[in-house]
Amino acid sequence: MHLRHQWLGTKIDYHQGLETQHRLVENLLKGDQQNHFLSLEHAPIYTIGRTRDTSSLGESTEHLPYDVIETNRGGQATYHGPGQLTGYLIVDLRLLGKDLHAYIRALEEALIQTCLEYGIKAKRQEGLTGVWTNGKKLASIGVGVKKWISMHGFAINITQESLRGFSSITPCGIDQVVMTSVENECGKPVDVKGFADQCLKHLEASLEQIAVT
Fold first, then answer.
1. Choosing from 115, 172, 186, 199, which is the catalytic residue?
2. Contacts of 122 (CB under 8 A, 6+ apart)
3. pTM of whole model > 0.85?
4. 4 partner at 20 to 30 Å CA-CA among 93, 133, 167, 207?
5. Residue 80: exposed, middle, or buried by beta-carbon count in 10 A (0-12, 13-18, 19+)?
6. Would you say 186 and 158 are in contact if contact means Cβ atoms under 8 Å apart?
7. 199 catalytic, yes or no?
8. What is residue 32's predicted lDDT score, i.e. its pLDDT?
C-alpha cells in the first residue's frame, strides 16, 4: 500500500496535528484515494482516550508538568514530546478488509522491522498493544476510526529526552511498566526523522500484507 509521507516537523502543537488529520480524513471520505503517513515530534503534552477511567493520569492532573488533552483514540494516558516519533496514519481501512485488529498488528510489525535495522530485537507482548524489548515498552499504539478511515497511530520513543514525561503518569495504564527508547537500546544517537524515513517502507509492506485484493 502506497503512503504519502510528510514530515511535519518538531514541537508541533497537538491541536495542529489533530486538525491536519481531520482534514485528510475528510478528503478520503469525499473520494480522495491517497493514504497518508504523517511523522512529527509534538510539543510536550499528555493525551488520554475517551474513557471513564482516568487513573493512569494519577489522582489529579494538577501535579502534571504538562497539559492533558482528551482525544478520540483508544487507550489510556500517554506522553508526547521532543525526541519521540509520533506517526499518524490516515488510511482507508475498507482497503484492508475493515479489520482493525489486523491493522494494529500491522503497525506493530512495521515498528518491529524498523527496530531491527537499528539492531534492536523488539516484539509484541501477549495481551498488550504496542512494541516491547527486554521487558520494557518502546512504542505505544492508539487508533481512532471514522467511517472506516483511520487516524492517530503510534508513538515510539527515539531519544533519551523522549522518556522525561512518562515518570508523572502510569503509561497506557500498565502498572510498573518501564519505558525505554531506541537510543537506550541500540547505544548510539538516532535521528527521529531518519527513523521515520526508514519506517515508511515497513509500514507500506505490512499494510500491503493485509490489503484486500
1. 172
2. 111, 112, 115, 116, 131, 132, 133, 138, 139
3. yes
4. 133
5. buried
6. no
7. no
8. 95
